[in-house]
Amino acid sequence: MKSQNRNILIILIYFLNLLNSYAQKDINKLFFNLPLESGRDSIYCSIKKYGFIEESTNRTVSQNNKVIKTFSGYLDVKTLGNTLADSIKIQLSTGSSFIENDNYYQNLLIVWTYHHFSNVTTAKEFYQVKKNEIIKIVSEKPYHFRNYFDDGTITAGYSDTFYEEKGDREVSIELKRKKKEYIIILGYQRNEGEKKLKGELIPKKELIFREIDSKNLFQSSNVQQVPVIEKCSTENDKSMECLKRSIAGHISNDIDFEAFGLTAGAHRVFLKFVIDKNAEIINIKVSHKNTKLCEEIMNSINELNITEPAINKGIKVDFLVDIPLTITIEN
């Protein structure tokens, strides 16, 4: 009897593994049949057959003191053949995730594809087709957002994110309008490598305050190049908009705002700090009546990874960041 039960268990495990294999292959189809379960080098080699035009960058991405492969570029729509999009951009990126109250974090392999459309009807039809394909693959119901907040403003669009509670994969699809075009963003992420101790267990960096003459501080209006944060460097976007967006995103992901007893509604927090010519963050000041919240935001800002300082007339300069942050607490 025990032997029979053991055989049934082996068959069940094999069947579940087979289903997972089929599901992964179906997910791969959404991303031009890239071997998403393979390593980064294999994904990079596979994308080249689609006439991949890689965007040049001088930056190197490292993770746990090891250089890892990332890329960003456009696919040749003529090589792809039957495609409705006007242009398609693809990125291989990295990230990390952790579970609350867990002492470990997990590195992530992330792939994004950006399908650009000039026709809104075609874009919406494409979105619905791809969403239905994902629904057939992933059993969990999606988290749906409509006219969501992006960088403190309402973005016309909607998104659906599919999580696998018993797996390590996440598939998402998003539609948003940008100027006169519509972009469908397909995202895939999975765990990569072994779990590591969370950075929160490392002692927090000391806050640095240094006297600087305000006359020597530059802002976005009078520099040739604003400072570049790690996320913007990964996306090859050195704009002030990306800097502000990445700062807000970092703080939002780092802090549980509901833990500070804030009332329901929108709360304005004002951030002011200097990114000096050595790409170090100094003189952090956060303004809000909740002092504990201000302290947490200051520590979060201090952990930002600045890869390049501001440049003016070819010279590195001290840069003043002075931006508001909107925190929304739901009822």
Please give the number of β-strands: 19
Give the overall pLDDT as a whole number. 79
**Model regions low in confidence, pLDDT < 50 over at least 5 residues:** 7-22, 148-155
Summing up helix and strand content along with how strands pair, one would put the structural category as alpha+beta
Helix run count: 7
- Give the N-terminus to C-terminus distance in angstroms: 55 Å
Radius of gyration over all CA atoms, rounded: 22 Å
Shape: globular
User: How large is the share of residues in beta strands?
Assistant: 35-45%
> Strands of the biggest beta sheet: in what spatial order?
1-4-5-6-12-11-10-7
Main beta-sheet strand count, sense and barrel state: 8 strands, antiparallel
Care to describe what's here?
Helix content is 27%, strand content 37%. It has an eight-stranded antiparallel beta sheet. Strands 13, 15, 16, 18 and 19 form a five-stranded mixed beta sheet that branches. A two-stranded antiparallel sheet has the order 2-3. The chain contains seven helices and 19 strands. A hairpin with a 2-residue loop joins β18 and β19. About 7% of the residues have low confidence. The protein is of the alpha+beta class and 331 residues long. The longest helix is centred in the first third of the chain and has 29 residues. α1 packs antiparallel against α4.
